[in-house]
Amino acid sequence: MTRLRPQWVLPLSLLAALLLSLLPLPPLLQPLRPYWLALVLAYWVIEEPDRAGLGFAFLLGLAGDLATGSLFGEQALRLVVMTFILQRFRARLRFFPMSQQALAIGGLLLNDRIVVAAIHLAVGEPLLPAAFWLAPLTGLLLWPPVFLALDTLRLGGWRRR
Q1: Nearest residue to 142 (alpha-carbon basis) of 43, 2, 22, 24
Q2: What's the mean per-residue pLDDT of the chain?
Q3: CA distance 4 to 106
Q4: What is the CA radius of gyration of the chain?
């Protein structure tokens, strides 16, 4: 017997990630802002690869670019690169313990920062401050609660029986 899974979780989780990326933070905490879209998209690429692929990542990145006012296509490129790597290693990553998954996601987020730095260098924008490299650490620490929350919602564990 298959259980019906709520279809609203994916779009609502991505909308929440987009809104969290728009949330104002004090200047001191700005460098620690996690890349919410990447964290939530990583979950969906790992757990529902048929629903979240490269095209989906590209469109989500364009929506993120429009919402945040960043260079058009920057987040699209970043999310496509991350999704490609996740798809390549998905079979192994799914069975990692949570601590190793968090380290792998941290590595992907660090790779994302390298892509951002390369884009800024290519378009002639000023170099990013050293604190800019702290955000992957925040994402690494947030991965377990994000994963568990989305898993609970996706699998319907929030319903009382």
Answers
A1: 43
A2: 91
A3: 32
A4: 16
